[in-house]
Amino acid sequence: MTHHIVIVGGGAGGIELATRLGRRLGKRQRARITLVDANRTHIWKPLLHEVAAGSLNSSEDELNYVAQAKWNHFDFQLGRMSGLDRACKVIQLEALFDESGAELIPSREISYDTLVIAVGSTTNDFGTPGAAKHCICLDTRQQAERFHQLLLNQYFRAHARPDTSTQINVAIVGAGATGVELAAELHHAARLLAAYGLDDIRPENLRLTLIEAGPRVLPALPERIGVPVHSTLERLGVQVITGSAVKEVTAAGLHTSDGRFIPATLKVWAAGIRAPQFLADLDGLESNRIQQLAVLPTLQTTRDADIFAFGDCAACPMGDGKLVPPRAQAAHQQAALLARSLQRRLEGKPLLEYTYRDYGSLISLSAFSAVGNLMGNLTGSVMLEGRLARWFYVSLYRLHQMALYGKLRTLMLMLGNRLGRSTEPRLKLH
């Protein structure tokens, strides 16, 4: 029997791993590769704030799993993992239903020889009252598109009643990378919407408030990055509130721990992460308080050598006692290492151990600026701002595309994007 490698989760890391293994092992029929995901298409998660603002048309930048599987010699199965039987070496997939509620695909099982779990993370609202009901998260394309539609509805409603003055209050909880980038992108979207004639809501009437419980914006990054970002946001008119935790969310707005009330028509929760709930007690696998699976430096789970986990859903140790941060560059590095390790495993060779390499951090402030630092053995840590930082930021997405499509097709996609700018609006208006 051909060795069967099942990868659950088609996010940035999962789809890169499936593609690499398909080219290395599936093409030569040295192993059978199956990718499982609950969605039909993939979009790079760091771009979801652009989808929410309308700067990115998700229909044009999505990757179709079925087509990618065909081109790269692996199989794709539509489904959502719900359980695991380690003794029988099978995963359970829950039934899927269509838009009308009719069963589309019944619950089923898929057997594996090697299982890789790469289901990413979701936003953690820490049980804040009202957050789940009244806030939108940006974990999925559907959530980002829902926010965009709600935003456009506000503009079209005002456009249909030009005699009434309208103000939109948007509150973003969490001043990490997602919250900061969303705030800047929404400010840019307000300018573009006015330029396209939806000027009944002037750019200054889209009131953006960014709330952070910690003492500064971008708390996970060096302060030398957070300070200029904070200044730029305030220069754009974004109200930045730090050192203030949200204690309750209502339909009208947010109540903070220091007694403030922040009115908000639209509310986004972008603070904290946790792994999907079903990992918390997955047939005895070890997990931490935010449901991440505990793994060894080889990325094998601590209680089953045949099951690997990586990316945001894995608690991977670093040498200093901390865990690998939940960042796209970590998932990219781990996918590349696992592609080599799983090939070595089939050859009876020892597995490689993962060491996190921090190549720096880049934050995009839409068309206005970008800021960050690059780290390397030769350059040390180099601060970047402005157009050069923006170029490096965009290049991160191009590296992801090259891992999936190869250099030639990525170049063609870049050319197509450039040509499309002259024939399409700069903002998605539907």
Question: Strands, helices and their partners?
Answer:
Layout: E1 4-8, H1 12-26, E2 32-37, E3 41-42, H2 48-53, H3 58-61, E4 63-64, H4 65-72, E5 75-78, E6 80-85, E7 90-94, E8 96-97, E9 103-105, E10 108-111, E11 114-117, E12 122-123, H5 131-134, H6 141-160, E13 168-173, H7 177-195, E14 206-212, H8 223-235, E15 239-242, E16 246-249, E17 253-256, E18 261-263, E19 266-269, E20 273-274, E21 293-294, E22 300-301, E23 304-309, E24 314-315, H9 328-346, E25 360-365, E26 369-376, E27 380-385, H10 386-405, H11 407-420
Parallel strand pairs: 1-2, 1-11, 2-5, 11-23, 13-14, 13-19, 14-15, 21-24
Antiparallel strand pairs: 3-4, 6-7, 7-10, 8-9, 12-20, 16-17, 17-18, 22-23, 25-26, 26-27
Helix pairs in contact: 1-4, 1-9, 10-11
